[in-house]
Structure formats: C-alpha cells, structure tokens
Design a protein that fits this description.
about 500 residues, alpha/beta, FAD/NAD(P)-binding domain, 20 strands, binds flavin-adenine dinucleotide
Length: about 500
Amino acid sequence: MEDQSFPECQAQELFDEFVSASTCRAAMRSFSQLCEHLQLDPSTAERPLYRPIKRRLNYWRANGLWAKLDRRGAQEEYQRARACSDVTCVIIGAGPCGLRTAVELSFMGARVVLLEKRDTFSRNNVLHLWPFTIHDLRGLGAKKFYGRFCAGSIDHISIRQLQLVLLKVALLLGVEVHVNVEFKKLVEPAEDQHRHKLGWRMEVSPKNHPVSQLEFDVIIGADGRRNTLPGFRRKEFRGKLAIAITANFKNRNTTAEAKVEEISGVAFIFNQRFFQELRQETGIDLENIVYYKDDTHYFVMTAKKQSLLEKGVILQDFADTELLLSRGNVDQNALQAYAREAADFSTNHQLPALDFAMNHYGQPDVAMFDFTCMYASENAAMVRQRHGHQLLVTLVGDSLLEPFWPMGTGVARGFLAALDSAWMIRSWAQGAAPLDVLAERESLYRLLPQTTPENMQKNITLYSVDPTTRYMNTSPLTLLTWCQEQTCGYHGVN
Ligand code: FAD
C-alpha cells in the first residue's frame, strides 16, 4: 500500500505548480517539493520515477501525461525499463541534447545523473524542428507542459522552452538533475585509504558536492560546442566568411503581430529580387534570413562583411574573424539598428513595434556569431580503461557536431545523436564487445552530417532508439575497416 496517506489536494497543487513552472529553478523547486510530499527519493525510488508518483497522486489532470509516458515506455527496445538497469550514466549539460539523452536512458532504466553549471534557461533564440522532433516531443507530453507547443503548422520552439519541457520530462522519469554544478575533469579509478577499489569518478565545482563521490560506467558530453571531455580530436570545416546575426524582439501577441507572416528560410539563390531590393533601399546585404514568431519575434540572418562595414556595425576590417567580430570592433548600437532595419524590411514593415527583448544580462537581445569555421568531433565515442574499470565516453549535440543555425539542423541532428548514443549504451549494457559497440556508433555518426528529413525513414511514428527505424541505410562499418582508421577509440591500460 503506497498511497492514501498524502493530503491529495496539496499534492495536486504541487503537481500543477511543477507542470506550469516557467523557469528552471521553479521547476526544480516544485518537483523536489512534490517528491518530498509524496515521500519519494528520486535517487532510490523505482525507475521510471513517474510510476510511483502516479500511484501516489490520484489526479485526473495528470492522467493524460501518464498515458503518454506509459505509451512511450512500452517501446520494446526499453525492455520494460530493464535494458540498461545496471548502468550509471553521467551527462554533462542540460541543453536540449543532454536532456533528450537523459530521457532516453531513463526509459531504459539506467540511473542518470545530469550536471548543469547554470540554474537558468535564458536563450530566447528559436530552434527549427523537423517533423520527427515534433512527433517525438509530442509523444513525451510537450503540449501538457507548454500548451503552445507547435500549434498549427508551427515547427519551432525557443531554446529555453525546449529545455524546460525536457527538464520536466527528465525529472518525472527519475533523472537526478544537479544545477549549479560544473563538471571539471574525470578522476581515474584508484584505491581509497581503506583499500577499497573505486571506479571512475569526476571532479566538479563546487568541489565537495556529493556527486563527486559517484562512481559511473558511462559519461556523456552534452556541454555544447566547448566540449570539456578530453580525448576527442576535432575536425575543422573552414568555409567562406559567414557572419550570422540573431535578434529577438518583444512579442506582445497583438492581432497585428499575429498577421505577420513568418519566413522559414529565404536564401539569396531563391529570391534574388528580395535581397537586391533590401540592399538598394537599406544598404543591408544578406545571404539569407529566417523569421519565427515564438515567445519573441526571432530573426537569424547571414550578413555580408562589406555591408556591416559600410553600416558602421564592424569598425575596422581584419582578415582574422576573431579580431573582426571582437567586442571592441563592433558598434552595438549600429548592430541593433542593422538587425532592426533588416527585420522591418523583411516583414514588410508590418511588425508594429520592434523593441528588443532582453537577454540574460538585461541587454537588448541581439548578437553576432562567426560561422566561418565549424567544428565536428572526429569520433562519437571511446572506451577508456584503467585498473580493470572500463568507462564508455560519448558526445552528443553541439559537442559532437556544430550546427549552422540559419539552416536549423542543430536540434534534429542533436536528437538523432542522442538516440544513437543511447542505443550504443544499450548494447554496452547488454554485454556487447567494446569494439563492436564503438564500430556501430561510428558508422551511424558518419550518416549524421548528411541527414535531412527527406533522406530518413518516412514513417516517423515508428522512430525509436533503434537506428534502423530512423536511417535508411545502416549497414555497419566492418570492424576491420573501422579499426584500421582509428587511432584513439579504445584507450586500454590495465
Ligand atoms: P547547449 O544547448 O549548448 O547546452 C549545453 C549545456 O551545457 C548548457 O546548458 C551549459 O550551461 C552546460 N554546460 C557547459 N559546460 C558545462 C560543464 N562543464 N558542466 C556542466 N554543464 C555545462 N541554434 C540555432 O539553431 N539557432 C539559434 O539561433 C541558436 N542560438 C544559440 C545561441 C547561443 C547563445 C547558443 C550557446 C547556442 C545557440 N544555438 C542556436 C545552438 C543550439 O542552442 C544548440 O544546437 C542546441 O541547443 C543543442 O545543443 P546542446 O544541447 O548540444 O548544447
């Protein structure tokens, strides 16, 4: 007998508070109050955690969500939450990809500990969603947490809303989330003063945080483009100079704003007249522009250097892009004016007021980024071995493959890599040989940069953690070819 002893009304209030929480801190707080109230300790309770919550919380409003999670949890690959039940995984970073990986691993019954160095989700910028990501998120109950999720034909979401939705799902599944904890480095297996053999651990900040005592089998780098896990070499793709500008304007949700049409991506080659008129009338020279109406009016555009110089946004010309876009070489007021004028022209002057939304620092939310050099990790995973302890190390999201924002590929390929990594961890948990596990992971990673909604399996309702449900061609690399190409996938020192 588990239920009955909890004042139901208070539990329901706490549940409602959690579902509607609009910040990371509020979601974490209301969830821990809910667990306390229901006398559940997420680190020791049955996984997925929502099941004991469901038994203790008799609340009609929660039923729709439980039904969704039950349906997802019934996928056969999860083996009723037993596929990874002996594995402890650490994930670095609560961005969309770290959180999505955490969700998948929890459905398979793994113990998942997620570290996030911040306790705020503050990015207004908007991510394009492919049809499968929309279907995936709906299946995880996104609409229950965020009623406006992909209303009608809308196929995008702000980064912070996406993080919030996934954080809530992850918490309900039992992921142990530690905010304000920064991963610093791996600690190799050793013996403690009582001659107990300790496995792989990590150093974090703050230093004495209990999570630094945790021993784990798998670690996943989901900490964005500045990946902190050592050992992964990066390839650099140097293209022609590409300067992206993002800008967010306040959305007051008026009728006039609602009427303005979104621009889901116009490139110069498809609409030369538009870009020529823009240049003639304003002096702004762009290669492409995207406009999404979300919590904010979000614009991302690629601007030509010459026009940024002529409009006084960039003060001095330098061949080195780091110098070119350095803080001291950019006039922030001119940048704001440039972004506002481009937004105004491209929406046919129909947005009534173009007031900037504020960013995390309380400044107008406009920024300029260099996409001339894009990075990708050479490998998706490796196995490290010390003193008989193996550790599976893998990367997902921007740490693995940096996306070009105006093309909107980031979160879709990020979710694919999250699922591929979870699949690898599943094989690992089920005892497959390390080299086989790595070879399969690398062969899938080779498909990733080419994926588009068009060249993937058509039936998105069948997508699961199993790669054959998602990719058309998953013929594995032969182990021999792969081993011949590798120098660093398996680090074994005993
Ligand atoms: P991220 O979303 O970058 O998340 C990484 C997380 O790891 C962060 O929460 C970070 O705080 C945390 N972290 C980092 N280091 C540590 C550590 N040592 N310990 C613990 N936690 C750590 N994409 C677009 O398509 N369009 C855009 O307009 C756009 N704007 C962006 C603006 C900014 C400022 C940034 C950083 C990214 C933007 N992106 C944009 C990229 C997009 O956010 C990512 O592709 C997407 O969020 C998936 O990334 P991720 O989960 O791999 O990493």
